[in-house]
Amino acid sequence: MPMLTPSAVHIDQPLTNLTLAYVQDQSNFIADKVFPTVGVARQSDKYYIYDRAGMNRAGERQPLAPRTEVQRIGMAISNDSYYTDVFGLGMDFDEQTLANEDAALEIRAAGAQTLMTNLLIDREIDFANTFFAAGVWNSETTPSNLWSDYTNATPIVDVTNARRTMQLKSGGYKPNTMIVGKEVRDILINHPDILARLNGGATVTNTAKISDAKLAEIFEVENFYVMEAVQNTAKEGLAESNAFIGGKHALLVHTPSSAGLMTPAAGLTFAWNNMPGVQNLGITVETFSDDALRRVGVAQHMQAKMAYDMKVVGADLGYFFDTVIA
Prior knowledge:
The chain is α+β, with helices and mostly antiparallel strands. The protein contains eight helices and 14 strands.
């Protein structure tokens, strides 16, 4: 008589308490953290700019003799404009697939997450192309000794010099925020100049934990952001090819906690929030189910949209380090 085996008494089925989905952590994305988001009611409009040179001009006062009038000066105002593009992705779910779905899959929730992750990655790429690139800011350099050269490089001195240059060029505004690529941060946390600033005199072989808050303190900024988001640059069907979006750069900027009247900023994100279902960041996720969709076998259509314009509004309020590591 044949003996029963484990495979004979059990038919494999999907687990009901486990699925694997490689969704990036939201903290990897910084596009909505660095610069203020301005919610706007119209897709395009203008904003005013006060002339900085006139506000900082010295030597215009005059001594006043009795019964004489003060020297009169004026002000200059210009304007610029924004235009918010609308970006979107969608996904269809057919009736038969939904009816046959295993409970553990929750494919509609997974679909919404996939759409938003794709849009967040593209928004992060827009941030890098708009703000984190050469030729954008009025102050830019590549260190003569790259920061990955632990013998000769002086990243703290380089940033100190850049802070002074930006403060002069911007009419007195100091950088309060630093952004680096993931690979740059990994180099900095093991750099002898950084380790020497830590309590206890840590070394490469006797390290201490270096937080982003500690790096912010060392580089004299309020905010220190790391571009950790990853993009797959391969087309569908080809082998995955992942890369950090931030590259090997660093950026110093002056940015306020929020935008407002007479408030200078290096950059802004204008988010069109007047479309149906869109919140203040210009983001919406909607689902549709109607007779027209059912006639073609679609039980539900889901789409996610973003509407924004990332814009450099103060090119003197930024200092870009192009390629700081090998």
